[in-house]
């Protein structure tokens, strides 16, 4: 097996089996790193915990819910606002976070009374919100607080409210993936089947494993609506608590992120006989195949084909423009779990980039299998990397850009490698046909950013081109605008300025697709 040993990890020989380089003609049996194991002591892992996986990834996107962490305030603060799980109720779940703020005295004397007091205070502070989730942390789990009993007491005293309890302490699994599993099973055990929904279509689905990052869900719902499909509930992006209690009435579970939500789909199949269909919202070809599969299930494939044809005609020319300019650029694909394999082949085939490395912090063996099988020979695959290994990999691979989370991304910027936020996006949504073009645009802007080019200069000896070389300045100079307009910081104040720049950009850069010509300015 082609194991790769990092120089920085030679003092931890076990780490060697967690990284491989995909060689010519090798099968997955030859090129699969160990994965989803307990973190090796001393490696300084950057993984999230099981509590994070339950609350931050799956629970928090539910929109009409008070999300209460029973533990120290740092736990809830660490899982607040770092992902853009938007909702159509003014982002209530992003604006506020709640915690019982356990202290040392509560560890000694217990914190059940504090929990009950906090639950009632939260409901009184937000009288329009009648639903709550309570998340267990390491602290409350270790002292054995009975959160279920407290929730039952409150619901008896306040019959208009409903509370879901998720026992998901941070130590509940090797990584945040353990929390995914716990909240999936807890939800179907406690809440599914307790509400009967209104059915308005002959074709009813649950959209599972979708978290509405920067509006991803809205894009996909539009396609389903045009196909005549009713989305009964979304687990859990922009999802309503009571809608998710009615998941048992869907005809089909359409699963997007298999790593975080396949568990509830499998249980719905066992308990209610609901079929599971895995789809992919990223990339023109994967998305087209997914919509056709859903249409084929219901016998409405012609509707899916119509949506695909309309969207492809509208957006494919723009994607092709970016592909020509991104061809051959090297990418490190370092996201969380399923994006490892959702993106690996799609960005290569449809954006022209070369995937030189894949990694996952909480993915299972299946995620690595699919990711490695879809990337090119010579790619470096890493399980649970730390900061030093990431830096060493970038030095070895010399990528043009990496797709990763904010913490490793900010480290990459320090060594002059641009990054895109694979977890929360830069300028999303990235799903759907339009979203995939937006993703390609962000990749293009990241690699060719003038600011990034300036960062490569050595200010001690290189000439700094502060007064030339930027497209906007060239256009303004060529347009021979008045001194007043050229020096203006608010260009839109001047009538006709937009049209002058648009006409000039079309003349100077005719290869730009019409709808994005001005963005070149």
UniProtKB/TrEMBL annotation:
Cofactor(s) required, per the database record: [8Fe-7S] cluster
Catalytic activity field: N2 + 8 reduced [2Fe-2S]-[ferredoxin] + 16 ATP + 16 H2O = H2 + 8 oxidized [2Fe-2S]-[ferredoxin] + 2 NH4(+) + 16 ADP + 16 phosphate + 6 H(+)
Keyword Zinc-finger: no
EC number: 1.18.6.1
Keywords attached to this entry: ATP-binding, Iron, Iron-sulfur, Metal-binding, Nitrogen fixation, Nucleotide-binding, Oxidoreductase
CDD domains in the cross-refs: Nitrogenase_VFe_alpha (cd01977)
Major enzyme class: oxidoreductase
InterPro entries according to UniProt: Nase/OxRdtase_comp1 (IPR000510), Nase_asu (IPR005974), Nase_comp1_asu (IPR010143), Nase_comp1_CS (IPR000318), Nase_Fe-Fe_asu (IPR011290)
Occurrences of domain Nitrogenase/oxidoreductase component (ranges): 49-447
Signal peptide interval: none
Gene Ontology MF annotations: ATP binding; iron-sulfur cluster binding; metal ion binding; nitrogenase activity
Keyword set includes Membrane: no
Pfam families listed in its UniProt record: Oxidored_nitro
Family under the similarity heading: Belongs to the NifD/NifK/NifE/NifN family.
PANTHER family xrefs: NITROGENASE MOLYBDENUM-IRON PROTEIN ALPHA CHAIN (PTHR43457)
Protein name (database record): Nitrogenase protein alpha chain
Organism: Ruminiclostridium hungatei (Clostridium hungatei)
Gene name for this UniProt entry: anfD
